[in-house]
Design goal:
By secondary structure, the chain is an alpha/beta fold. It has 16 helices and 20 strands. A hairpin with a 4-residue loop joins strand 11 and strand 12. Helix 5 crosses helix 7 and helix 6 packs across helix 7. It is globular and about 60 Å long.
C-alpha cells in the first residue's frame, strides 16, 4: 500500500516501523502484523525485495541477485520461506531444479551437484576414490547439523523462556546444535580429508553462497546448505525471485500492515537511550514503539567510509565498534543481465554454473564467475525464443570509486566484455547471440539497493569461532533492532528469513503478542 503522507498518518504511533523491504525486513514485518501489531515498512526504492527482488526490461524479468534459492521445501522446520509465506496466507508456486550447481574448476575438474544426495556422493567419490571415507564423514556431519536444525522450531535465541520450551521439546537436537556453533566448515573438512584438491573443492562449495572459504564459513550454515539442497532441494519461484517479496507484501497488507515506497529514512529518532521513531528525507517524522533496521550494519551505525548512518554517532553502542573490528563488508558484484537467443543455450544445460580458472584466484577481484539461466526453469521470464543469462562476479567498490564518467563507462564495457568472454568457455558463440544487455556495478548496487559499498553482507576480517560472534537482533539501544544479513545467521535468503522470524519473535515478546505454543 503506497499512500501519500498525511498529517494524520504522521501523528500515528506505530507498534513497529521497519526500515527497508529486503526479505529479512519483510519477514519481520509480516510476522509482527500476523501477530496483531500495527506495522509500517518504509522502502527507499519503488519495488520491494532489495537484492532479493526482480526488475523488468523489454519483456524480460531479471532477478537482482542470485536465483539459487534454499528454504522452499515442504517438510521440516528449515523451509523458512515456505513457512513465512504460509503464515500470512501466501504461497509461491515453485519449480524444482534437478541440479544445485555445475562447477567448472581448475585442472579440468567438473562436477554437478545433483538434487539426489547419493548421486552427488557417488560422483564426487568417483573423482576422489581415495577420499571416499572422508567425503562421507564430512557430508555426514553436515547432515547431523541439518537434522538438528530441522527437528526443532528454533526462532529467537534471545528469549530464554522460548529456548526453554524448545529444549524441553527437542533436548538432543539443542545440545547437538550447540556443539557446532563455534565450529567452521574448514575445521571439519580437514579433520576427515587430506587431498588438497578436494579441500579446494570444499572451499568453493562454501564460497558459492557464503563468499568465504571453508575456514571462515560457520559449520551451522554449511550444514544447512549442503543438506537442504538434497532434502528440500533448490526450488525456483515461478515468476522470478521478486515474487517472494511481492507475496510477503500482500501478506503484510492482508493483516493490516502497510508499506510506503520512495520513503527514504535518514535518521532514527532517539530519546534518552530509546528509539521512538524515524525521520524521512522530506522531513516527515514517524513515531513508533519499536524501530527495525533492515539496512546493513554500516549504513545503520556507521564505520570507516560510511556516510550519514541512521544512528547518530553519540548513540552508537560500544558493541558495534567491536563488531566492526571483526567483520568487513563482502565485495559487491559486477552483474550482467543478458537476453540471448535460445539457440545459444543447449537444451540439456543446467540452470546454475560456477567458473574458476585458478584455485588461488577464488578470493581475488573478479576471480569467480557465477552464471544463472532461470528461463531453463521458467520460460515466462523472457520473450519467446529468448533466454535470460545472469552472470556476475565479485567486485570491490575500491575499483569503481573516484572514476571520471568516461573512465567509469569504459571500465563497465571492458569488464563486461571480459565476463562475456568467460561465458564462451561453456557457451561457445554466445557473444554473437546477445539481444539485450544490462550492466550493473558496485555503484549500481549501492545506488539502487542502498547498501554500504554495494556489499552483499559481512564476512569475517579474520578467522572467527563459527557463528558465536554474529550479533542477534537486539542492539544496545532500547526499542531498536537490526535484521538481515548483518545479523545471526548471516547471508542468504533463507538465513535472512530466519533473522526476520527471530526479530519478530524478540519484538513480539516485548509487545506481549507472541503465542504460547511452539510452531508445528
Amino acid at each position: 500500500m503506497n499512500r501519500s503522507t498525511t498529517s494524520k498518518e504522521s501523528s500515528l504511533i506505530w507498534d513497529a516501523v521497519v526500515i527497508g523491504s529486503g526479505i529479512g525486513g519483510l519477514v519481520t514485518a509480516s510476522q509482527l502484523a500476523y501477530k496483531g501489531a500495527k506495522v509500517l515498512v518504509l522502502e527507499r526504492y519503488t519495488i520491494p525485495g532489495g537484492s532479493g527482488g526482480s526488475f523488468t526490461r523489454n519483456g524480460y524479468t531479471f532477478d537482482v541477485g542470485a536465483s539459487m534459492i534454499f528454504g522452499f521445501g515442504q517438510k521440516g522446520h528449515t523451509n523458512l520461506l515456505t513457512r513465512a509465506l504460509a503464515d500470512v496466507g501466501q504461497r509461491c508456486e515453485t519449480i524444482p531444479d534437478p541440479v544445485q550447481l555445475a562447477y567448472h574448476l581448475p585442472e579440468g575438474l567438473q562436477i554437478a551437484v545433483d538434487r539426489n544426495y547419493q548421486k552427488f556422493i557417488t560422483e564426487l567419490t568417483s573423482l576422489f576414490p581415495h577420499e571416499e571415507k572422508g567425503i562421507k564423514k564430512f557430508y555426514g556431519v553436515c547432515w547431523e547439523v541439518f537434522n538438528c536444525l530441522d527437528s526443532m522450531p528454533l526462532l529467537s535465541i534471545e528469549d530464554p523462556a522460548y529456548l526453554a520450551k524448545v529444549f524441553f521439546k527437542a533436548p538432543l537436537a539443542c545440545l547437538g546444535l550447540a556443539r557446532w556453533l563455534p565450529v567452521n566448515a574448514g575445521d571439519i573438512a580437514r579433520r576427515y580429508i587430506q587431498d588438497p584438491k578436494l579441500l579446494n573443492f570444499i572451499d568453493i562449495e562454501c564460497f558459492c553462497w557464503s563468499v568465504m572459504p571453508a575456514d571462515k564459513t560457520p559449520m551451522i550454515n554449511a550444514g544447512m546448505v549442503f543438506s537442504d539442497r538434497h532434502a528440500g532441494g533448490i526450488n525456483y519461484p515461478k515468476g522470478g525471485v521478486g515474487v517472494i517479496a511481492k507475496k510477503l507484501v500482500s501478506g503484510l497488507e492482508s493483516y493490516g500492515g502497510e508499506i510506503r515506497y520512495k520513503s527514504r529514512v535518514t535518521k532514527v529518532l532517539i530519546q534518552g537511550n530509546e528509539a521512538v521513531g524515524v525521520q524521512l528525507a522530506n522531513g516527515e517524522i514517524i513515531n513508533s514503539r519499536k524501530v527495525i533496521s533492515n539496512a546493513t550494519r554500516w549504513d545503520t551505525f556507521g564505520g570507516e567510509g560510511a556516510q550519514k548512518p541512521l544512528i547518530d554517532k553519540k548513540y552508537t553502542p560500544a558493541s558495534e565498534a567491536k563488531w566492526g573490528s571483526r567483520y568487513s563488508p563482502s565485495p559487491s558484484f559486477l552483474s550482467l543481465h543478458l537476453g540471448v537467443n535460445e539457440k545459444a543455450i543447449p537444451k540439456d544445460t543446467h540452470c546454475h554454473h560456477l567458473l574458476l580458472d585458478h584455485w588461488n584466484e577464488m578470493e581475488n577481484e573478479q576471480g569467480v564467475s557465477f552464471v544463472s539461466i532461470p528461463t531453463l526453469l521458467d520460460s515466462s521470464l523472457a520473450p519467446s525464443g529468448q533466454h535470460i543469462v545472469h552472470t556476475f562476479t565479485p567486485s570491490s567498490m575500491l575499483h569503481w570509486e573516484g572514476l571520471s564518467p568516461k573512465t567509469y563507462f569504459d571500465k563497465k564495457i571492458s569488464d563486461a566484455n571480459r565476463l562475456i568472454k568467460k561465458l564462451e568457455r561453456i557457451f561457445p558463440g554466445i557473444s554473437n547471440s546477445i539481444t539485450h544487455k544490462e550492466i550493473g556495478t558496485p555503484r549500481s548496487h549501492r545506488r539502487f539497493l542502498g547498501r554500504f559499498k554495494g556489499s552483499y553482507g559481512p564476512i569475517p576480517s579474520s578467522r572467527l569461532p563459527g557463528l558465536l560472534p554474529m550479533p542477534f537482533n537486539s542492539t544496545g539501544i532500547k526499542g531498536f533492532f537490526c535484521v538481515g544479513d548483518s545479523c545471526f545467521p548471516g547471508q542468504g535468503l533463507n538465513a535472512v528469513a530466519f533473522s526476520g522470524y527471530a526479530c519478530a519473535h524478540r519484538i513480539g515478546a516485548d509487545l506481549g503478542i507472541n503465542p504460547w505454543s511452539l510452531p508445528e
